[in-house]
Amino acid sequence: MECRVAGGVRRGTYITDRDGMAVVKLSSGYNIGLPPAACTRLSRSVPAPAAKRAPVTQDANLPELAIISTGGTIASRIDYRTGAVTSQFDADDILTAIPDLAKVARYRTKQLYTILSENMTPAIWQELARAVHEEILRGVAGVIVTHGTDTMAYSASALAFMLKTPVPVVFVGSQRSADRPSSDNAMNAACAAAAATSELGEVAVVMHETTSDDRCAIHRGTRVRKMHTSRRDAFASVGIPPIGHVEYPSRSVMLSPDAVRRGTNRPELHDRLEKHCGLVQFYPGMDEKVIRSFAGYKGLVLAGTGLGHTSTHLITAIRELVDGGTMITMTSQCLNGRVCDRVYDTGRDLLKAGVIEGGDMLPETALVKLMWVLANARNSEQAAAMMQENLAGECNRRSGHGL
User: Fold this and answer.
1) Same domain, yes or no, for 78 and 222?
2) Are residue 255 and residue 281 in the same domain, yes or no?
3) Are residues 253 and 287 in the same domain?
4) Which range of residues forms the domain containing residue 6?
5) Domain co-membership, 186 together with 139
6) What's the CATH number where 310 sits?
7) Which candidate in 73, 310, 346, 365 is catalytic?
8) 149 is catalytic
9) Rounded Cα–Cα distance for residues 308 and 295 (Å)
10) Measured on CA atoms in the order 245, 250, 251, 254, is the torsion positive or negative?
């Protein structure tokens, strides 16, 4: 179809009508919305589904990896009914769509879910941990988990607490779907496979380190955060440097001395979680009702200001929650540095109210840890002690210069 817009005529493929606009796919691969009156509709052309590709030939001499698919953008295409990105294909499709993976390893594939990551739940984390543990016991050299990027840090943290693994467990996603000209899925997947065959021995996230197709970073699963909504280099390690890098296209892996090495741990699964936990960010003027709304929860993570503070008028509600059996852990909205509630009066009052300091844990990591600790500790005293222990690389004993 042709559409007359400022600057001339745009030609593209009509996809659908949405929100009063005609959605048109340009030859660049990007969708734009244009007033229908400005367009001459020649035909509605919806690309036919691609023919099923022949399976990729796998080399029996290469190490075996497991790919467990949960969905996300890395397993997505454009839905031409709506013009939106939807999760539509499984682990086998990923393997056939990225033939470069066959140069690194041979693969077992399992489609656990096909969802976007905002639909993740603690129950799915438990299923995922069991599926990964099962693959480890079967003797695979490593496990790749394909996952949406928005909540990938939560899921990586969850598996880091629930699993002890002797092999790499690598989460990977993409910021842009496979049919986008700027998709990062192929490079991220190839780098994840390289990391999964390396000497790594812990749960990690592998994603673009720069905006170019030259290098991926390997991030510890409990210290990683998505820092940008759409950039390809959206992920960063917080409080520590990345634990490794994968060069591309060579796929050479370099691990830092701090990375846990392959074979360090024996496989263990501890998949209990206390799901009645919450996370809330303090803001100026917060009503006490917000805190009291968590009455009956087993645990609550507060993301306070600076060194770990809330306003003074909330402390009574916080004390009531603690007295009612809710374990409260304080983290900071500042992504770098650590909580210390012994500096100012407010912090000391929070400690007297029963709040536990969360050190330099990221708030989302602290939430997942609290779920795990409350389900696995013998009693509240042990749970409180465990929240301040470094269980899976989530706590730094000291904050380095500039961190």
Assistant:
1) yes
2) no
3) no
4) 2-40
5) yes
6) 3.40.50.40
7) 73
8) yes
9) 21
10) negative
User: Do 146 and 71 form a contact (C-beta atoms < 8 A)?
Assistant: yes
Q: Based on the residue annotation, tell me whether 289 is a catalytic residue of this protein.
A: no
Our answer to whether residue 214 is catalytic in this structure is: no
Q: For 48-87, what is each residue's pLDDT tens digit? A: 555 555 666 789 999 999 999 998 766 556 555 555 665 5
226 assigned to active site: yes
**Per-residue confidence (pLDDT) for residue 45, from 0 to 100:** 47
List the catalytic residue out of 90, 93, 150, 184: 150
Give whole-number Cα distances, 162 to 34, 129, 158, 274, in Å. 49, 7, 6, 12
Query: Do 206 and 85 reside in the same domain of the chain?
Result: yes
Of 245, 330, 238, 324, nearest to 282 by C-alpha is: 330
Residue 57 lies in a domain: no
Q: Is it the case that residue 209 has pLDDT exceeding 60?
A: yes
pLDDT beyond 50 at 42: no
**Does 180 reside within a domain?**
yes
The total number of structural domains in the chain stands at: 3
pTM score of the predicted model: 0.85
Considering the candidates 13, 70, 146, 149, report the single residue annotated as catalytic: 149
CA distances from 225 to 204, 220, 240, 300 (A): 12, 10, 12, 20
